[in-house]
Amino acid sequence: MNAADCLCSALALNCCQFAFLSQKKKSSPPRSIGSSSYPKNNNNDWMSKLDANKKLRDVVIPGTHNSASSTISKWALFSGVAACQNLTVHQQLNEGARYLDVRICGHKDDIVISHGIVKGGKLSDVVDEVEAFLCDNPKEFVIIEIKDEGSMTSSQKHQVLHLIQSTFGERMITYKDLQTWFQLKQVTMGDIRRRQKNVLILIHNSFYFHRQGIEYDMKMVAKEFACFHNSTLLHDKWHNTTNSSDLLHRNLTHLRHLSRYDRDYMICNQLVLTPQPPRNLFDTVHLLFGLKSLQPISLVKQLYQKEDVLHCFVRDRPGLHWNIVSLDFIDCCPRFINFLIEINSSRSNT
After folding, report:
1. What is the mean pLDDT of residues 231-260?
2. Which DSSP string corresponds to 21-52?
3. What is residue 165's three-state secondary structure?
4. Mode of pairing for the β-strands spanning 99-107 and 110-115
5. Contact assessment for residue 40 and residue 95, using Cβ atoms and an 8 Å cutoff
6. Residue 34: left (phi > 0), alpha (psi -120 to 50), or beta?
7. Interval 125-183: pLDDT, tens
8. pLDDT band at 348 (very low <50, low <70, confident <90, very high)
9. How do beta strands 214-216 and 209-211 pair?
10. Contact (CB, 8 A) for 297 and 24
């Protein structure tokens, strides 16, 4: 067997795993972790308790990476590689998450959750979960970043935008709001509460399209659907590493190099480890014998086994602009989520 054959075999054995199989590995956190092994948080209304004068850009906001991937069936091929969350979106919000990274694609006549080639549940069900949460917790503020993981037709893109608008309606931050009171340099939690606006939708370039002779460009989509290009409000950096020390170092370097201009944006800090495909024969052998995995859950133990590592990393650097902190398997680090939320009570308003 040559190197190419080994590579293919390694990928086949490692990728073609079902998520339910990871539950049987006692040496690593099972996919269903959190239901019994970890305590549940009850952070459904933590934003409502923040000082009204606190600026949104100064709030430390727990978030989730690939938030709706829990809708992917545990029995689906490649589900073990695609899953980055155990909890439903509604459960994540109750745990304290206020930033959601939702990835989608077109499937037949519908829009579904997607991570690469693996498909999950319907987008409509996910946005209904967010709407239900906000109905119960109207003083909370949720940021949803929607990413196209697969090719969608113009009609499907229009369908997504219409679904978002029809679901959230007057809750949404609008184009007019961005031109007036919702300026990140100054907007406070009190401003948001008074106007009863609690959903901000961010999208990517792929959502600009032509349909029925109309060009839906950035400005058109913002005005008509209240969905904004992510780069106008958010700076995000994916660090693409499997090593926890390297991940923390890269996040620290990124934060320290933020310019004064960058600080007028929301900042998404990704404390997420990313499984890597084999780069050489050594990696291939490790994959073949199960010493290495392409499943995101396999890296959670490295990052969350000692939660104090994350806790101290953030605590010891109070002057940095943490803002949004995006995480995999949010139910596996409840103490860290509580810590992030508690930071907001101790920080002075700026």
Report:
1. 89
2. GGGG-TTS--TTTTSSSSPPP--TTGGGGS-T
3. helix
4. antiparallel
5. yes
6. left
7. 999 999 999 999 999 999 999 999 888 999 999 999 999 999 999 999 999 999 999 99
8. low
9. antiparallel
10. no
